Amino acid sequence: MTTRRPTAEVSRALRGLVDDRVSVRLRAALALGTTPDVGCVDALVERCASEPEFFVRDALTWALTRHPASVTLPRLVREVRSEHARARSQALHTLSKIGDRRAWPALTRALLTDADDEVARSAWRAAVVLVPDGEEPDLAAALVTRLGRGGRETRLSLSRALVTLGEVAVPALRAAAAAGDAEVRAHALATERLLRDPDAGFAFAIEEAKRVVALGDFGDAGPPDQAGREGQGGG
Fold this sequence. Notes:
There is one protein chain. The protein has helices spanning about 10-15, 20-35, 40-50, 55-65, 70-80, 85-100, 110, 115-130, 135-145, 150-165, 170-180, 180-195, 200-215, 225-235. By secondary structure, it is mostly helical.
């Protein structure tokens, strides 16, 4: 079998991916996406695992989305099992951008509960994009076990993922609001508030939820189960 030699432009771009200069790496990633070449997929995926600059990693992801999913998916699915957190995170991010549900089996419980916050956040975002029809309730049940985890950005990412699932997440959120500790309850209540009112700010929703939990005062919304029923009628 004859292996096709890369063009001079592709060879130059591949060298550019590992250049010390950020601007060169960025141009290289953009070039490899502008003129896709399946022979470059491995190099793009490998660079995602080590690239320190966020906007260059984003360009690498974009470049991968420009290549056939039949080529990129197997490589990215292997990468989500990497021992390196950045490799897992960026592979998951790229899978979410490709949006091919054939990657769903790679979204394991271990990834959804990964100890690294960025990996977990990437897994949550990918999961709500890739989840097959009918499996959303099970995914919501898995995601609510992470309520109360981490700092503001991590909690906001989880809330956004649950809001993306929509009404199917409400039963799991109600259960968490009723049975969880104070942090879990507040996060569950804030998430349901965002689901009912997407324009509500997360900071406001979480502070209001903490007040409700602390005082045991559900105000006009009623207790969590009643609030959920009223929210369903609001659309």
